[in-house]
Amino acid sequence: xxxxVLDGYTLNPGDLNREELLAxxxxxxxxxxxxxAVVGRAADAAIVLTNKxxxxxxxxxxxxxxxxxxxxxxxxxxVDVAAARERNIPVTNxxxxxxxxxxxxxxALLLELTQHAGHHAHTVRExxxxxxxxxxxxxxxxxxxxxxxxxxxxxxxxGNAVAELAxxxxxxxxxxxxxxxxxxxxxxFVELETLFGQSDVVSLHCPLTPLTKDLVNAQRLALMKPTAxxxxxxxxxxVDEPALADALNSGRISGAAVDVLSLEPPAADNPLLRAxxxxxxxxxxxxxxxxxxxxxxxxxxxxxxxxxxxxxxxVNK
Length: 317
Description:
It is a single chain. By secondary structure, the chain is of the alpha/beta class. The chain has eleven helices and twelve strands. The strands form two sheets. Strands 8-7-6-9-10-11-12 form a seven-stranded parallel beta sheet, sandwiched between helices. Helix 4 (about 80-85) links the parallel strand 4 (about 70) and strand 5 (about 90). Helix 5 crosses helix 7. The longest helix has 19 residues, at about 290-305. The model has no long low-confidence stretch (mean pLDDT about 95).
């Protein structure tokens, strides 16, 4: 059975073993595929794997041999799952592979916002410490996390992992989500507006849906403390980016750090790229070698399950 990987480079730039994937059948792997080349490259494929390459309704109905679509990620909005369902083509994803890695990156961003270790290390490398009249210096307020309040929007697997790290740093945790829950000794569930108003750090870990698009808007940013930080390692479109840039540039909030933007790669005029006290990393929270290895293993297992007529992790049943 012919297999085509449309964009294999990001998942595996060469540091992961592909033998298990190659053993599943005749396999052609492309580093990247432009939209106009999808149908041509997948024309003879029964199985198509994609990370971020869009597979549209038109393309699905232009591929008569297609029997299976595997998304090499957790989010699957790049595939028209309704069109695939109409053709009885299962679409699978890979849940859970990056939980710890994303939580780790969330705190890497927070620690840079509060301790500025990277910035100060850079100034030392430039020679500033050797010329300093004092035994130390710092360019930003250094913030201790203990006794601060972390507000988590979306307490799923990643949100829970972030809450665990927050408690390890001595923070208390508020949470809000689409499913109301009872508070526990470790997490206090509150309304979204209360979370934005009372948290010292707001961290986003919810999916992108029509209801959550622009969840962080000018009105909610206005509720935040001027000393508060915003983190987003979920989906870029959860944030109204011009509104966040305005809040940062005006000092309405203290800082923000995002690993995702509404358009990736971003346009050069994205306001967050130049906003005051804003860190932007290039969507790498998921990309530790350990997480990518787990992703590859589950993606291969998904294909095996399909070939055994027992598909797993199907998102369009």
